[in-house]
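Q: I'm writing up a methods section and want to include an example of the input and output format. Could you take the sequence below and give the corresponding predicted structure tokens, formatted cleanly so I can copy it straight into the document?
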Amino acid sequence: MFSRKKIEYKYEDPALFIAPRTVISCALAWVLPGAGHWYLKRKRTAAILATCLAVCFLMGLLQGGDLFPVRGEGMIRSIGAFCQFGFGGIQLITRLLIDRGSPLSLTYDYGTTYFLIAGMVNWLSVVDCFDIAMDRK
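A: Here is the clean output for your methods example:
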């Protein structure tokens, strides 16, 4: 009734993991959302990613979200800081320029969630750049 397909995995060349194309595309994808895909000649994907992530990050800013500190507030908030750290260079600059959001604001939780989403989706775009550079996609 159900047939099982045999999945074949091809073994990648270990040199591809540290090849300049792989490292540069992943670094660009982390620093500036969409830049890694642009470097890999996926311009449409780059434009979509850059636009969506910028809107998501701006929504977090406008709604007074919180940028979690890396240390000092417990394990769960450290995980949140790692997720937000995924937004890269823009998040680092924003951390220097703005204060933390106020928990008394009505939209505080929504803004914080937008920051988390932007960071996590950008981590996924870094992984996608890695897969493209490794010729898996």
